[in-house]
Amino acid sequence: MGSPDKKLAVLHQLSQEFEPISLKELLGKLGDGYVGRSVRRWLAEMIKEGLLEKIGDKRGAKYKVIHRDKRSSSAGGGCFRVESMKVVGKIRSPIYERHPISYIDEWLESYEPNVTYYIPESFRAELLKAGTRSQGRDPAGTYAHQIFNRLLIDLSYNSSRLEGNTYSLLDTKRLVLEGESAQGKLDEEKVMILNHKEAIRYLVDTAHRLEVSYETICTLHYLLSDGLLGQGYGGKVRAHGVRITGSTYVPYEDPKTLERQLEKIARKGTLIMDPYEQSFFLLVHISYLQAFIDVNKRTARLNSNIPLIKGNLVPLSFNDVDRDDYSSAVIAIYELQDIRPLLDLYIFSYMRTCAIYDAAAESIGFDEIRVRYRQERRAVIREIILKGLTGIQMKEYISLEGARLIQEKDRAAFIEDVLEDLKLIDRTRIAGLGITPEQLEGWLAKDHL
């Protein structure tokens, strides 16, 4: 790992800490390959860059990450480009200075899948280069399964935070992974996070058959809104008008028109070939339509992850996006149909998420061969058990199947994984193999010499 990557890994490690830590503690968590002098230099650089805060002096000094919404805004909008800042300036003017505007049907009508592009080609190429995590042979959702807990925490926390949820990252982690809620928090906030957990699990578990569709959009809305809206509202387009706080935008009110427009968004969305263009299109137009009584932006954020999860690309977790910036970017779509501020946030957050997940993968050491050939490995193990193969017959079968199914460069590691799994197999390890505990016990009872 080169110096830039190591520096990023240092930042990532600090981002996982909930309390400031010392250089000595940091070096202990980073492990071998990190020299104190180099880490100290990177820490000093990141302090100058406004990424870290140093607490105390000399031997007693400790370090912590400064989250973006607490950093100085002197740069003029953080991740917004100059042209986007001009748009945001219009949106942040007093509401009485902005003209009321209704939904403009022609904007969606004028979008032609694979002809119209909201994301310029150069940016799409940059996103693809940063986000690719597969060589094209892995089943849909493989990468999301690989980082599942991290995705649950990041996306649940950030999507909820953008809606004003006050749960901290640590609170969210405890709730999502351990089922523990923070004391004194509102029930609604807890439900919001748990609903995100269920919606994300649905996306990942059904990735192999998931498609952009009217039904999928409504299903995600139902999962995200369950218990938060009155009965009859979850997964159903609204039957009356809504008003957008802080905006002059007046969405459609007729439910038939809303259904028709949502179906049109789904039809156009599913035709888009580029995963990032498809993702951003869904984020923009589901937010803009406001088809549901509430939970529209959350629904848009989860739907925007469908093509990324299916394509084994890094998901969009909305890391480090400031809540006010996000609100302004969405209002720019409502009132001006100007996508530039939201596109800046999308690209900024996505590139940052890719970098953080890379550092996490290197520090954890994911086994790519196990993940890539999961289905083949399970199929070989299943047949060995069902056919009662042991000893030399078993090893010959594994070699033959390895030669038939696996690329030569990966074959030795695949065979090693199969043998290791067979050595450790018991009743707790047969999920997904398609065998019963009784069949396993029968195979274990055989002479394996």
From TrEMBL:
<dbReference type="InterPro" id="IPR003812">
    <property type="entry name" value="Fido"/>
</dbReference>
<dbReference type="InterPro" id="IPR036597">
    <property type="entry name" value="Fido-like_dom_sf"/>
</dbReference>
<feature type="domain" description="Fido">
    <location>
        <begin position="212"/>
        <end position="348"/>
    </location>
</feature>
<dbReference type="InterPro" id="IPR040198">
    <property type="entry name" value="Fido_containing"/>
</dbReference>
<protein>
    <recommendedName>
        <fullName>Fido domain-containing protein</fullName>
    </recommendedName>
</protein>
<dbReference type="Pfam" id="PF02661">
    <property type="entry name" value="Fic"/>
</dbReference>
